[in-house]
Specification:
This protein has about 1000 residues and is mainly α. It has helices at about 10, 15-35, 45-60, 65-70, 80-95, 100-105, 110-120, 125-145, 155-165, 170-195, 205-210, 215-235, 255-280, 280-285, 325, 355-425, 430-510, 510-600, 615-620, 625-630, 635-640, 650-675, 680-705, 715-730, 740-770, 775-810, 820-825, 825-855, 860-880, 890-925, 935-975, 980-995, and strands spanning about 285, 315.
């Protein structure tokens, strides 16, 4: 294959030398930018040097040249150089070429050695450099494990999900690494702020800014990490769904460490942002995001929708002007002019003293007026110069952005040139490649010429800007001179008044002294005239400069007028187009409202709509919305037609609301007529509705046809008539007792039964205390006391069930009455009634069993059975109440707590009954001391026979109990109208067997 060195027959040798020179110049520029960026001067790093290094990484597509410069100028020379090197490296990692992170992996040892070199430095930047090197090492390790993350860490939720591959294990490990990354950032922040004085007074000094500058990329990294950590933790706490079955959820206890660590870092990060936001240094460089007041609750999945991604806006820091520019502006303070002596008192030695005073006052007034005029002119000139300076600064910014674009184009051209050179090396013998290379070289030269032209234009504007700054400085000096002259004149006036009083005294005392004073006054007048001549010459010079500035201002003003004319023409065309769109929108909305009303009227004749019924109460809920939406329609339309397009929004809002509310009212009113017992009222309602609908459609048609609407009162009268007929459709005929009344009655009976049982237990306990003693009193007190506590628990359960029932009815009415709600949910209502009846019966059964045990005719087993029946009936009441309740309802939680307390007391009552039975059995135990061996053996055998008979009887009775329960639930299912009583029977039997 032919080498590239054999091509010079076509291209010549000068091109290769030019490329080498360009590369040498590029490498020198990179080395100079690096040395300036990490200089030993304790000032913040200049971002223009870092940007040059970043452009270098994109030019070479690697970080080899950057690390070569690091080796030439090692950062371990001084602590300031090492600190600025860490800041520079952090920015290059974030904004440099993607291959920078990969190429920097083998330089981890250099970063680690830099931190180890300064970790023992007790003062200066030693501890800060150690923390920063740990942060940079952590960043490199993170990107090595997760190379798909960009250096800026800015990813979308979809990208984050793709990086983790929707795997809980990947999310778990990624969260651990991000939390460690965030901890390194917060450690660096605490070290930086800990090294400054508590008042932060040195945040505006160069040394303080040098310490604070690296926190800007830390804020950028921490905001992205915070967003990713929040989304990852929500994903880990998310419950698997049908749409995402592959995502396995982790136990909440396993994620407790993640949550605690995040909540701790949340407080530190919030303090970090608040402290940096309050510093004056950061206000012009970065907009620090604001975190929410409270951290997100990962156990509530809905809070992910309220999460907002923190946005960090970094503004370009102003680069300090070069020394050569500042030397062109004369900022030296002018020497103040000497205080002029007071003028002569008289023109003629023979004049009077009053004439001297009058002449002096007139001269002072003239000078004051002239100074005031000059001050006004200088102020106007300064304002014009400031405005012109702002305009030129905006234009310079535009040109700088254009130059940046051209720079990027130039870099792209250089990259294409490099690729073409590689193609030339691959195909050196091809003439087409040579031609293509020549075309690319021509294109590159044109781009360079364009860049040079733009650079010249920028240089000219810069020079004009500098000239204006000089003019402004000269005007400031002139204003200072005039202000000092005015002060001098004021002082001269005061001295003249003092001298005048002294001369009056001298004139009255000695005429010879007056003559000497007059001669001195003549001399002073001559000096004042000389001063006035100097001031006049300076004023003429200022007038010439002002004329030059006015000519420049007039040129700029003409340019601004031309631009204003063009902008007004564009504004007129846009306004015309906007007016057309507004009219189109109004017409479309009105036509849509008319179409909706007409389509609603067509549904009146549909057969399928005749089966729909609605209550008058629900239909009349639309009475207020319809009136509220129809009333402002005429006013909004009149305002719109008067030529105020800004009010089109009010008209559109009124038309849309009126169309929707009228259509809904017509549908529900028609459905109400189907349920009316009076056919004549229903027919009148339908005809009134059709008339009202046609009137509304006609009103909407007038709006989009731009016709006049005079009054809306007839339309409102038709609507009131329709509402009156809707109220007459209510079925007032007497009927059987509704389910609502039954529920209230059964709940009242249940509460009365509970109260009666509680009072009966208290009465039996008092009676037992008065009549019984010994073991019987102890047994009665224990049993009746436990029964009383159980009745109190049942009463609390009933109260909570009633509150939950009221909440369910209130939340589920949807505009209907309670009677309609119970009727619509009749199965749930019947279950609720059955549960209430069962609780009342269980209370009575428990009361009867306890009464018999106390009297001595009952068995403790009856009390146990009654208590278990109480638990089963209360469970039925709880389940019936829970069916319609909201899962997050506070009333439901209170009901569940009351049921748990009832279940615990039921177990306590069963245990108490067994204990009491054992006590009674022990008390009634026989005395076997007088029995012989034969009698003892015979009684033992009889007892074993009774045990076997009792066991067989127990098995038989249990089977009978199971059959009775099955029959009971089969009958309950048939009464309540359940579709599948067999399944209810089986489920209920299993539940009761378990209980």
């Amino acid at each position: 294959m032919t080498s590239i060195k054999k091509i010079p027959n076509v291209l010549g040798t000068r091109r290769g030398n030019a490329l080498d020179q360009e590369r040498d110049q590029f490498e020198k520029l990179q080395e100079a930018s690096y040395r300036k960026a990490v200089s030993d001067e304790e000032v913040p790093i200049k971002m223009k040097h870092v940007r040059t290094l970043i452009i270098g990484t994109y030019t070479d597509k690697n970080a080899e040249l950057f690390w070569r410069n690091v080796a030439l100028c090692p950062p371990i020379n001084t602590d300031v150089m090492a600190w600025k090197f860490c800041h520079c490296l952090h920015v290059v990692f974030r904004d440099g070429h993607p291959s920078v992170l990969r190429d920097s992996q083998r330089h981890l040892a250099r970063i680690h050695d830099t931190g180890q070199h300064f970790q023992h430095l007790a003062h200066g930047y030693g501890r800060l450099i150690k923390r920063y090197c740990i942060l940079l090492s952590t960043k490199l390790n993170f990107h090595q494990h997760h190379p798909r993350f960009p250096g800026t860490l800015s990813v979308t939720p979809d990208q984050l999900e793709a990086f983790a591959e929707n795997d809980a294990n990947n999310y778990f490990g990624l969260a651990v690494e991000m939390l460690e990354y965030m901890e390194c950032i917060l450690n660096l922040y605490e070290a930086v702020f800990g090294s400054m004085d508590p008042s932060r007074a040195n945040s505006m000094t160069r040394s303080g800014q040098c310490r604070l500058a690296p926190l800007i990329p830390c804020i950028q990294d921490s905001s992205c990490l915070y967003d990713c950590i929040v989304r990852i933790l929500f994903q880990l706490h998310k419950v698997p769904s049908k749409s995402n079955p592959t995502m396995a959820s982790l136990p909440t206890d396993m994620l407790g460490g993640h949550r605690n660590r995040f909540y701790k870092q949340f407080v530190q990060l919030q303090q970090f942002y608040n402290n940096t936001r309050n510093l004056q240094y950061f206000k012009g460089l970065i907009q620090v995001p604001a975190l929410p007041k409270d951290p997100p609750n990962f156990l509530v999945e809905a809070e992910l929708r309220s999460h907002e991604t923190p946005v960090v806006v970094v503004e370009e820091p102003p680069d300090t002007a070069d020394t050569s520019d500042t030397l062109l502006i004369d900022t030296s303070e002018p020497e103040p002019p000497p205080i002029p002596p007071h003028p002569h008192l008289i023109h003629d030695h023979n004049g009077a003293l009053a004439e001297v005073v009058a002449e002096r006052e007139s001269l002072i007034d003239a000078l004051r007026l002239e100074v005031e005029g000059l001050r006004v002119d200088v102020t106007q000139t300064r304002s014009r110069a400031a405005h012109m300076e702002d305009q030129l600064r905006l234009r310079i910014n535009d040109l700088e952005s254009t130059i940046a674009e051209l720079d990027s184009e130039l870099v792209a051209e250089k990259q294409s040139k490099d690729s073409i050179m590689a193609q030339v090396e691959a195909a050196a013998a091809s003439a087409e490649a040579v031609t293509h290379l020549a075309q690319e070289e021509t294109r590159r030269r044109s781009a360079e010429e364009k860049f040079v032209k733009m650079k010249d234009v920028y240089q000219k504007l810069r020079e004009e800007h500098i000239g204006l700054i000089r003019s402004k400085a000269e005007l400031d000096k002139m204003l200072t001179v005039e202000r000092e002259s005015n002060l001098a004149i004021q002082r001269a006036k005061e001295e003249a008044s003092l001298t005048l009083s002294q001369l009056k005294a001298q004139a009255s005392a000695d005429s010879s002294a007056n003559l000497t004073a007059l001669l001195a006054a003549n001399q002073e007048r001559d000096k004042v005239q000389e001063q006035l001549a100097v001031i006049t010459a300076e004023r003429d010079h200022a007038d010439k400069q002002m004329d030059a500035l006015q000519s420049t201002i007039s040129q700029l003003k003409s340019q601004m007028e031309n631009q204003a004319c063009e902008s007004s023409a564009q504004l007129t065309s846009v306004k015309t187009e906007w007016m057309g769109w507004v009219e189109t929108c109004v017409a479309a909305v009105a036509e849509n409202a008319e179409t909706g009303v007409v389509q609603t009227l067509t549904l009146f004749s549909e057969e399928t709509h005749k089966d729909i019924k609605c209550t008058p109460e629900f239909t009349l809920t639309y009475q207020t919305p319809v009136k509220t939406s129809l009333s402002p329609l005429v006013g909004a339309y009149a305002t719109y037609r008067e030529g105020d397009p800004q009010k089109a929004g009010d008209l559109i809002k009124a038309v849309v609301g009126a169309g929707q509310n009228v259509s809904a009212f017509l549908l529900y009113a028609k459905a109400t007529s189907h349920a009316s017992p009076n056919i004549e009222v229903a027919e009148n309602l339908v005809s009134s509705l059709e008339e009202f609908g046609r009137s509304c459609a006609s009103t909407f048609r007038r709006i989009y046809q731009k016709e006049t609407i005079t009054d809306i009162a007839p339309l409102l009268e038709q609507f009131d008539r329709c509402c009156t007929l809707v109220m007459q459709c209510e079925d007032l005929s007497p009927g059987e007792e509704d389910l609502s009344t039954q529920v209230q009655r059964e709940m009242a009976n249940m509460e009365a039964a509970i109260i009666e049982a509680s009072q009966r237990f208290m009465a039996m306990l008092e009676n037992s205390r008065a009549m019984d003693t010994g073991t019987q009193l102890e047994v009665n007190e224990s049993l009746l006391g436990t029964c009383g506590d159980l009745m109190e628990a049942v009463r609390q359960l009933v109260l909570r069930a009633g509150e939950l029932q009221q909440e369910v009815v209130t939340a589920g009415k949807s505009g209907a009455s309670p009677r309609e709600f119970y009727k619509r949910n009749h199965r749930w209502t019947e279950g609720l009634l059955s549960g209430a009846k069962m609780v009342a019966l269980a209370c009575q059964a428990l009361m009867a069993a306890a009464d018999q045990v106390v009297v001595g005719t009952g068995k403790f087993e009856e009390v146990m059975v009654a208590s278990r029946e109480m638990a089963a009936s209360s469970m039925q009441l709880v389940m019936a109440s829970r069916v319609k309740a909201d899962r997050g309802s506070e009333k439901l939680k209170q009901l569940s707590s009351a049921h748990k307390n009832l279940s615990a007391l039921t177990g306590t009552l069963v245990a108490t009954a067994e204990n009491c039975r054992d006590k009674v059995a022990i008390a009634d135990k026989l005395d076997f001391s007088k029995l012989s061996l034969h009698h003892t053996k015979r009684m033992e055998m009889e007892t074993q026979v009774k045990v076997l008979e009792t066991e067989q009887l127990l098995v038989t009775e249990r089977a009978r109990l199971a059959e009775l329960r099955r029959h009971h639930y089969r009958l309950a299912g048939e009464i309540e109208g359940l579709d599948d009583p067999t399944s209810v029977e089986a489920g209920s039997s299993d539940f009761l067997d378990q209980s």
